[in-house]
Write a structure and sequence with these properties.
Layout lengths: L1 H27 L6 H19 L2 H9 L10 H16 L4 H24 L2 H20 L8 H7 L5 H23 L15 H15 L8 E3 L5 E5 L2 E6 L7 H18 L16 H15 L3 H14 L1 H4 L4 H8 L13 H20 L7 H13 L26 H21 L2 H6 L4 H10 L9 H9 L6 H12 L1
Parallel strand pairs: 1-3
Antiparallel strand pairs: 2-3
The chain binds zinc ion (ZN).
């Protein structure tokens, strides 16, 4: 029976991987005229995968294998447990809904790619209203206290609107005064990052650093897109996408480190979990903790640049030859209130996330109309960050999330990830000891090995809570993150 279960799950995985490949292609190389057929193809594949995964036979197999479920350490037991959780969720979603939503998603994504640069919220508004209807309908298939709970649970299992709100308000209470304190001082100079940096040279450099931290190009590749992401077709093919700006090399450098962090997690999953529901990261928060750990705790640290800055200076001698290491590190860690989440510094970043989280809860609750969203967005930026965008392109249209999936469930993971990145890093540092001097020498094996042992190799075998407890010996806590931020920025 276990063999039959695995065979069926591998078929589901094949269909989903094929859909992921089509989606990757849509976001990288597909010509514009391919969009409508691509939407249909994605809908067909997702419907087939859904039908296969919700087949009554799968339920019978899971019931028959129930006796194997109890051993907490065994891979097979975890496979049955995790598959059952996913199965019980999936059978609540009608295949017809799945197909309609997937076709809608492809359509709105394509429209967003046009509407964002055109600053055209009016054109995309009816589609976004449909997305909100779809999101509410999806949530309604599940029992819930808050309408957002099922959507949050899809990406961060075990979390609810209420628990995320509590976590965020605890963080916010400490973060806002810290932001006030730091932004009261004049920001670090970073004008040297605004020159002209040839894209090709940036790519070569970004390639070299993601290779150095351990991203395996034999099992992946790097391409360009509008909105960078990591995707996986198998444990032997984990791809990252990035975007470059010729007048700002940090976009590519930190974007590449971020996506490579996601990819290290997936490339680090034990190969024997291949083609099962265990072969992916356990939650969006834990996933984001890995992108943030490599992007920020490692990649924006002084020790990291003590090693790599001479290389970067050699790559761009005219632009950076005269800029000291200290000035460079201060520049890449410049704190200032800004309009765009993906450009935000580490300190203000979470305020951007909280705005989105609150607005999507309001929309789902029916307390905010899509039509009023651009104004509500501006008002929140004004009150939380002290500035508001004149354009929707740099306002409500800036993030892909609401235009490529549900409204709800996609943003909280970023801040949970930030919190966890510091908690994991602190635990690794306690165990490794001279982690900082290893990073200063460009050595990342021991850190990667620690992360692999405690997090990566398990895939989805353990829940986020279990991973945190096993890796750190503690419950999820904002203390290490706040200590890290204070140590870095308040000084
Ligand atoms: Zn990410």
């Amino acid at each position: 029976m276990l063999h039959e279960l695995k065979t069926r799950l591998a078929e589901v995985d094949d269909l989903r991987s094929a859909a992921s490949l089509l989606h990757w292609d849509q976001a990288t190389y597909m010509p514009a005229q391919g969009a409508s057929a691509r939407g249909r193809q994605l809908a067909t594949l997702s419907q087939l995968a859904h039908e296969k995964f919700t087949a009554p036979r799968l339920g019978e197999l899971l019931d028959g294998l129930r006796s194997l479920e109890s051993d907490p350490e065994s891979d097979d037991a975890a496979l049955i447990r995790v598959t059952r959780r996913q199965y019980e969720k999936a059978i609540r979603i009608p295949a017809e809904f799945e197909a309609k939503f997937s076709a809608h998603t492809a359509q709105i994504y394509e429209e967003w790619a046009r509407a964002r640069p055109a600053n055209d919220f009016a054109a995309i508004r009816p589609l976004l209203e449909k997305s909100l209807d779809f999101s509410r309908e999806l949530a309604s298939f599940f029992p819930h206290e808050h309408i957002a709970d099922p959507l949050i649970d899809f990406s961060d299992e075990g979390m609810k609107a209420q628990s995320v709100r509590a976590l965020f308000s605890a963080l916010r209470a400490q973060l806002v005064p810290l932001v006030e304190e730091v932004t009261a001082r004049p920001p670090a100079d970073d004008t040297f990052l605004r020159g002209h940096f040839a894209e090709e040279k940036q790519e070569e450099f970004a390639n070299s650093i993601v290779r150095a931290i351990g991203y395996d190009f034999e099992r992946g590749r790097m391409d360009t897109t509008h909105h960078p992401f990591m995707t996986k077709f198998s444990l032997g093919d984990v791809r990252i996408t990035t975007r470059a700006r010729e007048n700002d090399p940090t976009e590519l450098i930190f974007g590449a480190l971020h996506e490579a962090g996601h990819a290290l997690y997936e490339q680090g999953i034990a190969r024997n979990l291949e083609a099962t529901p265990l072969a992916s990261g356990t939650s969006s928060g834990v996933h984001e903790s890995q992108s943030r750990l490599w992007e920020n705790l490692v990649g924006r640290s002084k020790p990291f640049w003590e090693h790599f800055y001479p290389d970067l200076q050699r790559t761009f001698p005219e632009q950076l030859g005269e800029v000291s290491l200290e000035a460079f590190v201060a520049g890449i860690n410049r704190v200032s209130r800004s309009l765009v989440r993906t450009d935000a510094d580490e300190l203000t970043y979470n305020l951007h996330v909280m705005i989105r989280f609150d607005l999507e809860l309001e929309m789902l609750e029916g307390n905010l109309l899509v039509a009023d969203l651009p104004e509500a967005w501006r008002a929140r930026y004004q009150s939380d960050l002290g500035l508001a965008s004149e354009t929707d392109a740099n306002g409500v249209l800036q993030d892909v999330h609401w235009f490529s999936g549900t409204i709800g469930g996609a943003f909280q993971g970023y801040t949970i990830g930030n919190i966890l990145s510091a908690q994991f890093f602190a635990a690794a540092e306690r165990e490794i000891g001279d982690l900082e001097s290893q990073i200063r020498r460009g050595q990342f094996e021991e850190l990667r090995e620690w992360l692999t042992r405690h997090i990566y190799r398990h895939g989805s075998k353990f829940t986020a809570d279990e991973i945190v407890r096993r890796a750190t010996g503690e419950e999820l806590s904002t203390a290490p993150y706040l200590a890290y931020l204070r140590g870095k920025f308040a000084a």
